[in-house]
TrEMBL record:
Entry keyword set: Transferase
Species whose genome carries this gene: Tenacibaculum singaporense
The protein, known as: GNAT family N-acetyltransferase
GO molecular function terms noted in the UniProt entry: transferase activity
InterPro entries associated with the record: Acyl_CoA_acyltransferase (IPR016181)
Length: 396
């Protein structure tokens, strides 16, 4: 029936988004979310060949598509962890050696359901009027079965990532099929006030202290020249953008996957004006870039690149945050998802934390039980939450 591998009468695995027939997308009606559009998924596939991409589809008894999940098999290098997960990593090494489950020469292979390049719920879609708890369990079991039935690789762990609190009454059903849950650093989210017609309106909404701080940052960045990146200019800029991206990614305490900056070309070609890239010049030197995607009523900040030698003097990163806000206001959007790094500075521009939960399961039952004890110790990174806005007058 379909160009894919079949596990049962209602579960199908696809190794490329191109293999999924057009009628399936019509049945699902999920493509108003850009993260679930074939054009977006194909851009990731084409340019990140170090990752094995696959897709799971669930069908009902009438062979109509009712659920979709994106999965990625990534090589995770334990030495890359530089934060509170180090204790878990040490445990994995120790248990791995004792039970002959892993080798220090080999990466830890994680099958991830979700988008490894973006924070948030972008891995699973379930059609309305379905038993979502049951479908989530079916998808989770299908993810584990992927190793036995489809993958030629030995998978060490299975992960479903980034569920918001409102979804936990559904996703906590994963506990019944062996998954452990833990909280990670939150997505920092800014809800735009409907009264903000311009960036100046946003500034007026800030308390004096933070308005002064914003104006000071904007003044320090006046020597920066910004430029909207086009498909034509990307090819020339990519080498320098790659170096700037590595400056930022090398500072990260945890990287699940390395993003190939050349993906930007495909994203711009496929998503047009919905994908935004802006570069920052200091004289004739490229010192930064930001990227983001307009998805429904939200601007989602993606990767940035920064020359840290000039970041403080010219407030490069702060300028980027204010530019994201300005872009969202000009586009009449409702929210900005800033992602889960640099939480304190993002809260200083008005973003608030949105809790995220990850579900993780080791492939073997005994290590999985022990893993749960360590995951219970993981806590999101603490930061000082700043409330920069004036208390809004309540209008009668």
């Amino acid at each position: 029936m379909l160009s894919c591998k079949k596990k049962s009468s209602n579960i199908y695995y696809f190794s490329s988004v191109r293999e999924i027939p057009e009628n399936v997308w019509k049945e699902l009606q999920c493509t108003n979310n850009l993260y679930l559009q074939p054009a977006y998924l194909e851009a990731l596939e084409q340019n990140n060949q170090q990752i094995q991409f696959s897709y799971i589809l669930l069908f009902d008894e009438k062979q109509k598509a009712i659920a979709f999940a994106t999965i990625k098999l990534v090589d995770f290098y334990l030495d890359s962890v530089q934060n509170d997960l180090q204790s878990v990593v040490e445990w994995i090494r120790c248990i791995g050696r004792k039970l002959h489950l892993s080798s220090s020469q080999k990466p830890f292979k994680i099958l991830t359901c979700g988008n490894i390049f973006v924070s948030g719920e972008h891995g699973i879609f379930i059609k309305p009027n379905q038993d979502k708890k049951e479908i989530v369990k079916q998808l989770a079991e299908a993810i584990v079965a992927f190793e036995k039935d489809i993958s030629k690789e030995t998978i060490d762990a299975f992960m479903l990532k980034d569920f918001v609190n409102e979804s936990l009454f559904i996703t906590d059903a994963l506990h019944s099929v062996g998954y452990n849950s833990f909280n990670v650093d939150p997505n920092m989210k800014l809800t735009l006030d409907s009264d903000w017609g311009t960036f100046d309106d946003y500034l007026k909404a800030l308390k004096t202290k933070y308005r002064v701080k914003a104006k000071k940052a904007l003044e320090k960045s006046t020597d920066l020249r910004t430029e909207d990146v086009t498909i034509e200019s990307l090819k020339q800029l990519l080498p320098e953008m790659t170096l700037l991206y590595k400056n930022v990614s090398n500072k990260a305490s945890f990287n699940l996957g390395y993003f190939n900056v050349e993906t930007y070309t495909s994203l711009k070609e496929n998503l047009k004006d919905d994908y935004i890239i802006k570069v920052y010049w200091l004289g004739d030197k490229l010192v930064g870039f930001l990227s983001g995607m307009i998805n429904q009523n939200s601007l989602d900040a993606h990767f940035v690149g920064i020359d840290y030698t000039v970041n403080r003097a010219y407030a490069v990163y702060q300028r980027m945050l204010y530019d994201y806000i300005s872009l969202a206001i000009d586009s009449n959007l409702k929210t900005i998802n800033f992602g889960r790094t640099a939480s304190e500075i993002k809260s200083s521009v008005g973003a608030v934390p949105q809790d995220l939960t990850i579900y993780l399961r080791h492939r073997k039952s005994i290590p999985n039980r022990i893993l749960s004890l360590f995951l219970n110790r993981i806590q999101p990174t603490e930061f000082r939450l700043i409330k920069p806005f004036k208390i809004k007058d309540i209008k009668n």
